[in-house]
């Protein structure tokens, strides 16, 4: 499976991070998590063995959507929520491009919710980076579809009463074939996931828990804070046990139909009781349970949670071109115009 | 022809088929049309069907009609009034009698006239007995029972047998107008290739209708409409939607691009999607998007990636696409938007025609956002104007709205097949590297359009977006003077297109009392009305517009040659208001109809005569 092949990464010796940095001044707020994501991306692209001109970054609207201006590749900053549709058109028309869609929680899950689920359903070979900061930053601090229940914002002075979405659950509900979660405080993990998502054939969704230092600071603190790192981050690796904790002595076990946190050595628990992560499992049940895990009861699952094979829309499109050619009664417009019922007037 | 009745020769005739929407009237009408076309008649058709797929049987709401005018003279419209109505039930009679000329022939299926069906159709009593048909030549034919009798011995259930009655009616019409049944017999063989019993049943019903009409004395005479004097060449029959689809594919092939068509189903535009989805072998990608917005956005994505991006819809869908069209205008990418207009606002009259999206096409975006707008005026010239729309959008790197409407989309006519090699060349403004740093908004001096730099090309990596940008470099810019410059450049770019489109033509002498002005699908009725008045010695000319934004550059000069300018439209006067705003010195009068129906030649003539 392509997503598991870190060791086959081709490093293009000509290109470095600097080659992917544009001449535009980066204008995010100081301390914004977006800087780290940009840097991780600029580190990831040279590892993909592609040329600079082969990348297209497509974004919608929001803080995250400024991303393409800062990349020295092809880039298209479009309109609010519509980037999946535009990226789909780009990929279907120019399948050789590596297409990256940059979006946020408002862009993808509110105004662009429909396009988001349909892109995942079709499984077009694009990569979607969802910067989830649980707030509207660019419009200066309103509730977003991922804001925690009760969050006080400019638009919810008494606290938000909308129940939040989970990007991962939505993606799996839309039959997404690749879902990974990472955090803006872990550049290494981000770069690794970007590289692997690019190798996945189909729509890859990468949720990045990103901090908005101005309007929703530390919203992911329970996961990302230094003191929580060991106990509330579960770094998943396909084929490996779900272990975490400073001593790697804590793990996730399936108890009946539910996950639970257990400690090796306590109550007779051994390493054999700990679940082995299977990112390639067609069945979404365990992936859904992993996605739902939240502190303080559970650690947050990070890494590639799901990566399964399924036909991509772009490949099926190509197949239909071929099929259509085999059965065609005409091969150009001149012949089409002359086909069927015609008559001669003398 | 061996009938005992006389044969009368006619210059033109209008026939209308009407029945329940499940009765196969569209098929009957289109078969009659195709046979007439093969015979060499000029013709025009008008399908008139309800929005509901199968409204309750026997009700006026469920009636589906198909009108066709055939002639040995040039035919520009499906005709104001029918000379012959074939009504398959009381509801069809009730809703269609208004379209029959006094003295015309009304053929009804007498089997369908009974107490129960009158009531369903909303008649108080039997319309055949209350004198309401005394001005018409009524022919009562027991179509259902004769169909059953003629199909005795064929192992089909009663329902399938009864469904053949439309072929019986078609047979009657074939005899009445002296047409051969061969084309339809061949068609049936092909259509029911896998069901020989249906071929046999439908063919027999067709023949039974023909021979019934020949034998029965109820029909006063049959008619001959000889072949029209048509320009020699190879012809085919084509509808507006099919022509639009083919025009777009032809343009894509001519420019050496693949066609990407992003669309969401909507009446009356869906047939363009159906048509294009058949041609994957010609490099056509059809993408049925999740909504109208995704449809246009996917097309913009395709254009950005270097292919020809096209979307199509009707008014409600175009309204949804507005923001994205603004994006295409802002980033200056090619995009063809096809609007097959229908009655509105909101859901309005989905299957009826209207020209009320003119303002939407011109102004339906936030801020100052001019685009190119063209309109077709006959079913077959949907090909040329779809082609032109594609040519203009790439050559000027500006979105083009192509306006068609329900009347053109579903209407059809014979079309002289063009040769692809004779279609105008399309020159793509591909960006080139000239050793200097690449900038995405370097402009062509004469057109002011930018160049198309396609992702995947080395050395042209660049960023574009919906934010205002600095001219030439394309860098985001909030500079006040730059914004004003850019707004003006985008307008000027559209205005300059006037130098690349043909001058406006006038049908007539070029000056006089009244200039009739129209645009889009009203061409046929306006032309017929004006020609008839010109024939009667009236000083009336016609200027019918296909290029709406920008207008042809000789427009004002034309208007100044007339005492009065009368703008006729199927809306409240949108084009008239636009012309008044551009040419305030010209006195512009207007004539409007907002009934979901085309103009009749009669009402146009009356209005024009008022002004003379």
TrEMBL record, chain A:
Pfam families per record = TPP_enzyme_C
Q: Where does the record place the Thiamine pyrophosphate enzyme TPP-binding domain?
A: 64-208
Listed InterPro entries: 2-oxoacid:Fd_oxidoreductase (IPR051457), THDP-binding (IPR029061), TPP_enzyme_TPP-bd (IPR011766)
Q: What keywords would UniProt list here?
A: Oxidoreductase
Q: Which domain of life is it from?
A: Bacteria
Q: Report whether Thylakoid shows up as a keyword of the record.
A: no
* Protein's recorded name: 2-oxoacid:ferredoxin oxidoreductase subunit beta
Which organism does this sequence originate in? Agaribacillus aureus
UniProtKB/TrEMBL annotation, chain B:
Q: Does the keyword Oxidoreductase apply?
A: yes
Organism domain of life: Bacteria
Q: Which residues form the Pyruvate flavodoxin/ferredoxin oxidoreductase pyrimidine binding domain?
A: 260-471
Q: Where is the Pyruvate/ketoisovalerate oxidoreductase catalytic domain?
A: 22-210
Gene3D superfamilies, per this entry? 3.40.50.920, 3.40.50.970, Pyruvate-ferredoxin oxidoreductase, PFOR, domain III
Kindly indicate whether the keyword Ribonucleoprotein belongs to this entry.
no
User: What InterPro entries would the database entry show?
Assistant: 2-oxoacid/accept_OxRdtase_asu, Pyruvate:ferred/Flavod_OxRd, Pyrv/ketoisovalerate_OxRed_cat, Pyrv_Fd/Flavodoxin_OxRdtase_N, Pyrv_flavodox_OxRed_cen, THDP-binding, Transketo_C/PFOR_II
Listed Pfam families: POR (PF01558), POR_N (PF01855)
Alphabetic keyword roster: Oxidoreductase
- The name on file for this protein is 2-oxoacid:acceptor oxidoreductase subunit alpha
Q: Which organism is it from?
A: Agaribacillus aureus
